[in-house]
Amino acid sequence: MGFIIYALSLSIFIYGAVRMKRRPTQLDVATLAGVSPGIVSTIINNRTNGNIRISEATQQRVLDAIKELGYVPNPVARSLAGGQNRLLGVFTYEALFPLEYRNFYYEFLIGIEKEAEIQDYNLLFFTRRQGTQKRVIYQNGVNSLQLADGAILLGLGTDREELARLNNEGYPFVFIGRREIKNGQISYVAADYKRATREIVEYTINKGHRRLALVQGSLRAEPQLDKQAGYCDATALNGLNESLAEIHYKENDQITVEWLKMLFDKGVTAFIVESTSEAKRLAAVAAQLGKHAPADFSYAILGDPMNLEEIIPDATTYRTPRQEMGAQAVRLLCEILTAGGEIEPRQVILPCHFQPGNTVGAPSHPA
Amino acid sequence: MGFIIYALSLSIFIYGAVRMKRRPTQLDVATLAGVSPGIVSTIINNRTNGNIRISEATQQRVLDAIKELGYVPNPVARSLAGGQNRLLGVFTYEALFPLEYRNFYYEFLIGIEKEAEIQDYNLLFFTRRQGTQKRVIYQNGVNSLQLADGAILLGLGTDREELARLNNEGYPFVFIGRREIKNGQISYVAADYKRATREIVEYTINKGHRRLALVQGSLRAEPQLDKQAGYCDATALNGLNESLAEIHYKENDQITVEWLKMLFDKGVTAFIVESTSEAKRLAAVAAQLGKHAPADFSYAILGDPMNLEEIIPDATTYRTPRQEMGAQAVRLLCEILTAGGEIEPRQVILPCHFQPGNTVGAPSHPA
DNA sequence: CTGAAAGCGCTTACAG
DNA sequence: CTGAAAGCGCTTACAG
Per the domain annotation, does A145 fall within a domain? Predict the structure, then answer.
């Protein structure tokens, strides 16, 4: 009887058109070793250390059988029985590999990959849309992230409602970047934009500037607000009132010669600029007025460029610790997973790294 | 009774200390909709088109139940049961997001993501090592790619033995780039390096050059061989024998002033260079000899840089159609999946795009 | 057209 | 110390 089962279990099956031997299973091993399947599992998983004890002889027989059959446990079955699938999701509302901004997610992904490898998880990138227009977490009202044990979310175009729902549901996730929702807190790993901005503004003020302008785009999400807060802190602490520390919301095409000339005429000597592309535009327009940084005016950039190609090598700026953020996000997610949900939402704030560069100098007309 | 089962199935369980609803299963859906679990599976998998017919009303009830419960099929269970999980694997032997070569995989990934979205698959990046030293497909003898319905493989450091085994096993996969194995053929999507190289060499010859040198590194895999074949074809067809069409295997640090001077002295006027980094090195060394392209000598580069930062904007080169390769690889994989393994391995060869640039000119001393 | 049941290959209480 | 059994969440013949 044992023989029949054994013979059967090694029968051939069809996988598409290619015929392949069926892989031996735990049952095959158990049968050959003359033990029950559970024992095989116990031995394989080394659970023999606890209170469970299995005789040396039995262990040896099982080990021999495993070797003889070339048995390897099926990872899929293990996942099913174990309740976890060791899949970490990665979700973005926009393309994860955008054409335009090749540097946008890349640094995060480096960190995510490294840490996933350390934590021994595979990564699941949610690209399926299942017919929906754009990417959404809840497809037909269903949380598609369920596919993975937990998920990392990042990027632009976040739907706060979905985040809140995810949170309520208790689905384990970590956002890369600060994101606030109504009625609660989510777990995130963010850069300390506020502090970094405060520092860079103080650096600028210490160079002698007394009349600054913050230039941001029209987007006003958490990062922009944090930067603005840092700017306000630093200027206020140094006795610059609102008329000496202006704030302008300008898209690139609104940065014109007229506008810039007006600011120069007002006596603005230093610009704190949201991003590299705006800085480039600013520098170009200033050049039309015959002004160049740092001799004729100064500017500092708040964070990394979205696109490596547009980097300004000698800019006064700070580096967002993107790789570190990616890695920490994975680590935090794993902690949440390990805690099995026992944990309250947690926020991790990472420092940015100041780059002195060479676009902030002393003002040409000290106040 | 139905009510009791339903109540039970939605019972709260402890997932750590935060009480979260247990993920609903097919049984929950079936119970709520008042059908048997098999029906739910049938509807979800759209197997209603075949001979199986299920009433509109029933379908609607099931769909409603799915929505109400937020049910998502467990991909692991699906795999085990022998179905599909709409996961496409992506496997590389080295880091998928390398620090050094930010442009290496990126373009492929753009194409892969786009096409995966079109084909409605999620992407599974294999980062788990399960204790192995480096990434391998067969972990403890088991094919870890099994987790996905099929996989895209790409990049350096390929283990041919593993590819062959994968092929024998009948596991559905497509390689990005030409890869040959013993005793068989695998499916791949490759760039037509041979043809592109032939064309660029002919372009160079047509400019008047009669004495060329091919400069490749020590790596000699399929791409390098294809390029060399193209070089040999073009030079032979134009009557340049081996002494007029040299081949050198040089790593960057072996490109020295002495060596280059020797070639110049020999009368070599044009260099066909494997990659951008070697071209940069060559140009720098030539500059030390007071020579500049295209006035004093010419060079052409065979393919895209691995790193966007090192791009030479005006180089005579050709573009590898990487995005297209990624997309086509996914498409081919989907075809294989649809055919259910009934298909023979298929190879797709995509043309490269010539970029005239400005580093190949007429020779300064026409032969 | 729909339901009941077996089975995928494991893990893990639960009995003895 | 070891075995028999239930269960993980699906899919897929097989009956009705």
Answer: yes
